[in-house]
Structure formats: structure tokens, C-alpha cells
Amino acid sequence: LQGTVTRKWDINKLLYANNIEPEDVIDRVYNRGGDESEEEDIEEEDFFKKKIYKEPSNEFDSYKPHFSDIEMLKNKWIFDNNNSNIDKEDSAGNSPFALISRRFILSKKMIGEDDS
Amino acid sequence: MAKPSNIVFQTHRNFRIRLILSTLSGKPIKIEKIRSNDVNPGLRDYEVSFLRLLESITNGSIIEISYTGTTVNYKPGLIIGGQITHNCPITKPIGYFLEPILYLAPFSKKKFSIVFTGVTSNKQDITIDGIKWGLIPVLEKFGVRECELHTIKRGSPPNGGGEVHLKVNTLLSSPLTLHVTELPKISAVRGIAYCTKVSPSMVNRQIDSARSVLNKIGCEVNITSDAWRGKNSGNSPGFGLTLVAESKKGWRIFVEDIGGPGETPEDVGTRVAYQLFEELSISGAVCRSQLPLAVVFMVLGKEDIGRLIINNNQIDSHLVHLLRDIKKVFGTEVFFLPDDNVIDQNNENNSILTVKGSGFTNASKKIA
After folding, report:
1. Preceding omega of B158 cis (within 30 degrees of 0)
2. Which residue segment(s) compose the domain that A84 sits in?
């Protein structure tokens, strides 16, 4: 067999697998925080690799969420005067404004529809 | 009869939540290897202070700390509550101590009335405004309707000097089961901008800068100013902002921050406003700060399936650690239903967190 094998992981199967660190669970299921090229070829043996022990820092007893740098946030959430940043559409064709405006109860004028 | 063996945890990760889960379940735990590889090993002063607080609100708890402070044996007693005062060390804010008390207070014998003194906000832990506007509304969803938090004095870091009063008058047998499968719609953004021992104009500058960002979304924005001066303003100057996006059904998603060294009020106002957009874009019915509280109360619920819509971005390593700790203590597993089961088909990035309640009943509550 040639080529790479990409496995679609089910979060429910890995959630309570004590031989896999929680950070690895998230990396495998969502490909977050890791190098994607490394994540594509995941073999069965990876389950049994010995992990290097990392001492948790003080912040691991806190649930205060972390955010990206302010400059990154500003770039992501820049709005022009027409309340749309069409240039920044994701793969599904949704702009950040469209994603967030779904969560608000907005008047028709606010979301750019004509009053007439 | 064989003695029940301790549930063993390692490191200081989730230190408070592990002790809370032990207290709720009545199962003894052992936490070992606490900063065992650190230059300064063992428990920190705030962790010892939290153990003391736990001892004072329970009856019959046995806490044993090893000579080096790297191992703690905890055998929980009954949660009795009552009226106490807790002086928090200035190394951690009041929120660090108050947040876990919210998990225990509804299941005590007597009503809780605790006065906390110390620092009321910092960058690493939840502030008293976050608890008041973000966590207490989550408790209401589980049936805890009489819970109040009063700020008597504000105390900014580093020297604190604040004082808050927590009153929990609701005593539950078991929490209500949650069924939330649709994303709540946000109707308004509210907030509170505060300052201590600095010019009140700092508050207005935070409000103006936050409003300039929030107005772009086009919803109602209402931020309250709260300037503290004189003897009730603590021992240090400081300022901060908490923003809450609220729905008409009482769901509230919040973010907060305080001013750091060299930061202007405009920096804080703008940053918190952008953080609110970011948090809204990756939140389900609850935000990341509220999720642990919601999950633990769902696990404590009746033997019925609870459902809560969450965003897939909320499933992170912190949550996985929490879910594993819950399973270790209560034996309860949480499942995430795939996207195609989500009712709101527009939000394909969401999942439904489902859990069967453990059938927990409050053993401490008096029978009327």
C-alpha cells in the first residue's frame, strides 16, 4: 500500500483513554496546536509511546481562558463601515461578522437589510 | 470491614476541583507529587489557605499534609456551611477561593454566609465581577436562585484590602437537569468598569474604548461605571473591565481583564471588547469559564440525561482533564454527540455534551 493514511478520530473513544495525554487527545481529534504534517500519519504504535513528563504550571488550577494577542484579535475582528469583512471568509464561506451576528438578536437595519 | 481506598491524583493540576469532587462524593483522596520536581516543592500558601477554608466549612474533615508538602491526604466530612470569615492571602485573589465554594454551598446543612477579605481581581483568576455576572447565573439554571455576592470593599493587586460577602440561601437536594440544545441568542452586552484609588476618568475611558468596538456589532451596550475612592477602595490603585453578553433566557457569556503595568484604560477597554467577540465565536450556551461549573452540576443531577450545546473549540485539554477527574471520583462519563444530531443545523461546529446524572443527593440537608 502506498500513500498516507489519515484517521478520523472519535473524541468519545479517546476521551477516557488514560494512555493518551489530554493534550494529545485534542491534537488527534481536532489537529489543534500540533504540526499537521506530523499528525497525518498516525500509526497504532503511537498509542504506546512513552511520554515525557511535564510538570504543570500554576495556571493549570485555573479556568480563566487564554486569548490570542490583541493584534491578532484586532485583525480578525476588524469591521468596515458596512459591517462586513468579506475578505476574511472561512472555508464554509462565513465571515467572522456573519458567524458572530448569528448569535445576536439584531434589528433588520443593523444586519444591512433594506427597511423598505 | 475493609477501609475504602483513597483515590490517587498526581500533581497540583485541578487542585481545588479535585478536593471539591471529593467533598461532594464523600470519597477520600490522596494528591501526591505536588511540585515534586520544583525548586520550591510542595503546596503554596494559597493552597494551604484553601484547605483551611475547606476545613472550616465542613465538619469532620481530616487533612494530612506530608512533611515536604508534596502529598495531601483528604478525608472529607459533611458540608455544614454557616457564617465564617476567610482572610485570603494576597498571592491569590478572592475569586480563587470563592469559585469552588459555589460548587459546595447549595449542598450544605446550613445556609452559607462567608466574608472574604483580600485581593478582588487579578489577571490569572476569575474576579468577583466574573463570579457575580458569569457564574451565579449558571447556578440559577440548576435551581440555585438565592445566591448573592456583595462587594463591600474593592482591593486591587498587589496589596488587596478588598472585602466581599457571599450569601447562598438555596439548599438543594439535587440540581435540576439541563436540556439546552439550541444556542441562546444574545440580546444585549452589559458590563462593569471599575477603578480603585485612581481618577474616575479611567473608568469612562475604558467604557468609551470598549463601546467604540462593541457598537460595530449593532446591539444594545450598557456598561456601568464603578469608581471606588477612600477607605473602601483597598490598598492599591487599579482598574478593570468585565463585559457580559446576555440572552433573554438568562444565559451570560463573559470576559474580563484588569490593567497591567504601563497599560492605559483604552488598552483594557479595547482588548476586553475584542475578547468578547472571540469568546462569543467559540462558545455554546456557556463560555469557557462557566463550563466546569455547568459540567459538575450536570454530573451531580438526577439519573436523567442532561444535554448542553457547546462549541467544539471549548473541548480542550483542560476539559479533558476535568472529565477524567470526574470519572475517577463519580464514575460518570460524558459523551459528545456528533454534529448531525445538533438541532441547529446552521452551527455545524457545535456538539451536544450529554451526561447521565449520578443521582447525587445532598446528605447534609436537614429534613424539614
Report:
1. yes
2. 67-116
